[in-house]
Specification:
Thrombin, subunit H, 2 domains, 7-stranded antiparallel β-sheet, 2 helices, about 5% helix, about 35% strand, globular
Length: about 250
Amino acid sequence: MRHLILVAPLLLASLSPAPALVGGAPAVQGPHAAVMIVGSRGNSCTGIAVARDLVLTAAHCVPAGAEYKLVEFDAQRQPRLRDTQGIARHPQFSQKTFDAHRATADVALIKVATSAMPAPIHGERLKIAPGDRLTLQGFGLTRAGDGKSGGTLRSATLTVTGKPGNLQIRLMDPATRNERPGLGACTGDSGAPVFRDIGGRMMVVGVVSWSTAAGNEAGCGGLTGVTPLSLYYPWILQAAKQLGSPLAP
């Protein structure tokens, strides 16, 4: 059963414990483009700076009716809050479809000043096959149900499983293969960037949308669901321009 991974820490008591992006995933060292997003309703997500004042994340991370701030950490791990200036959600995103565990246009852009070095997006359609390796980075929990275990950017390289397409990619820990708890996205990793090495350059090819525990149960540490960006790249360019931060195609 799929787990929607933006749940506020206080709501996590019912989730079964399992290692996720957590199970041994190392902290990212040095400069990076990932940022944390927090909402006035208590949820937190991850995003990726794609321009100096533009962050890409998942649409389900920024529903209407709440306020959102960007969290950046200085060298001493002290948080700095930045106000958002605008949000664009893909018009074809459907919360109803998402809640029914079906693929939808789960992408959004946030207008917000950031000091992060922007990451490049790969907008062309990729040939993704089972066994391919993709890397994700997120600020989510390292132990499902433990709200204090998040807030550190971690990275994990996972492998593609199932039948990947332009609507959805599923990732798993190659060491555990969704048969027992392993590496994967967890609460707070929604919207996290997913990278692929393209010509020796790590480029963003998707954002995290959901996770499961091992055996497709509710939780973390099993499968990680990714929304690929290629189908929505034209919209990303258009929305960035409308937000006053045009991206080079």
